[in-house]
Amino acid sequence: MAIKLPRHHTALCAACFDRYVVDQVERGIRSYRMFRRDERILVAVSGGKDSLGLWDLLNRMGYTTTGVHVQQGIDGYSNKSETTTRAFAEANRLPLVVYDLNHEYGGGVTAMAETTRRSACSACGTVKRYAFNKIGRELGFPVVATGHNLDDEAARLLGNLLRWQVDYLAKQSPALPASHAKLIRKVKPLFRLTEQEVAAYAVLRKIEYVIDECPMSHDANSLQYKAVLNQLEHQSPGTKQFFYLEFLRRQPLGGAEASTENVVLNECARCGEPTTGTLCGHCRLVAPLTQARQAGSDPAMNSGPAASVAPITPVTIDWNA
Amino acid sequence: MLIKCHHPTRDVIMKGPKQVRAVLGELKLLPETVLVIRNDTLVTEDELVADEDTIEIRPVISGGAGWSGGPDRLSWAVSRAV
Fold first, then answer.
1. Shortest Cα–Cα distance, B10 to chain A (Å)
2. Which residue from A249, A263, A21 is spatially nearest to A149, judged by alpha carbons?
3. Chain mean position to CA A80
4. Is the pLDDT confidence value at B71 over 80?
5. Contact B15/B51 with Cβ under 8 angstroms?
């Protein structure tokens, strides 16, 4: 068996491919000083190939990791994601934190999107970023790692360029610093590996992951950008790698740090988390649900500001305890 | 050969033997967007699939549901340009 890597003009046997994947991740971690050997890492885990592959890799490489899974409450999808994530954690005796949106707010991503008229992907991203940072900080983790791969980052870069989102361009780095006392570092150790390489790693490692994609994300813009980039990659292998890694190379030294220097962060008037405004995006997102829960009514009938925000109460599972 | 597909889950019958590259071509799939698996082993584009073989074609793209033939964007994301 051989795994072809057209962008490197080579094909590798399973053992060499495994070494290649580990090398690429080590190189990424080292080049951006993502974390030290003695630091505990919170790994955001959805149950898909990227996040479970990342968790498996970091664990094999000897890092001390804990998974965090957000139960999004999406019918026909989220329960399978949680079951798959729990099964991986238990099989590898790795601690896992489960954060259930239905339990916290009385509704999941679908309800949040409907009550605020936002896209499900936007609502999901907002609530997950908030949860990962707050859970990580409150449990004493200095850094959260996500499974974003080269394809994800190249597609994001293309989207930001097409819209000339200059602020977002400056922040697009595999490692974001803790730019506020209440923010923990965010890193993407898989940024040097393509989506196909990560999937091949998961198959070779016999990792059981959720193959189905989120039913709410079928209209995501990122898919269009990935389609264009894959057509280009097919014609000219190495295009995605050159596009994204060259962008990083040309960023001013310390681009991510520099991009946050002039951003003034306040504390949200409701939850106290960092925000550029007075009320953070998370509080605006969950306001109708939390208000409806307090009033005991249908959240779709509420449009005013939330009276309060539910506290974070993640459930930690330690198989070794 | 029996081809097990995802998004949506379905079986496709195709006459073999045939190179994986040709199978993907008939299904209008870009090789960069899928893994081809036979007996729990990854199969490369230049390998032959026999008429009696069963293979799984597993999409690798994250971010959506649906596959070729559907009006959604994932089908476009994994398909060859026409």
1. 13
2. A21
3. 18
4. no
5. yes
A3 contact residues in B (CB cutoff 8 A): 42, 44
Alpha helices in B1-82 (DSSP H): 20-26, 73-78
Contact A3 B62 (CB under 8 A): no
At residue A156, does pLDDT exceed 80?
A: yes
Q: Which two tokens mark A66?
A: 């804990």
Alpha helices in chain A (DSSP H): 14-31, 49-60, 78-91, 101-105, 109-116, 120-138, 150-162, 166-171, 195-204, 221-235, 239-250, 255-261, 281-295
Rg (CA), chain A: 20
* Residue A251 exposure: Cα atoms within 13 Å on the Cβ side: 22
The ipTM is 0.85
**Phi, psi at A266, each rounded to 5°:** -105, 180
How many whole angstroms separate alpha carbon A115 and alpha carbon A124? 13
Q: Contact at 8 Å (CB) between A48 and B62?
A: yes
CA A30 to chain centre: 20
Residues of A in contact with B68 (CB under 8 A): none
CA dihedral angle for residue A91, residue A92, residue A95, residue A96, rounded to 10 degrees: -60
- DSSP 3-state of A254: coil
- Nearest-CA distance from A66 to chain B in Å? 23
Q: Which residue has the higher pLDDT, A203 or A290?
A: A203
**pTM tops 0.90, yes or no:** no
Dihedral of the CA atoms A34, A39, A45, A47 (nearest 10)?
100
Shortest CA distance from B57: residue in chain A: A211
- Entry field: residues in chain A: 321
- Interface contacts A/B by beta carbons within 8 Å: 102
Identity of the amino acid at A265:
L
For residue A293, give the amino acid letter.
R
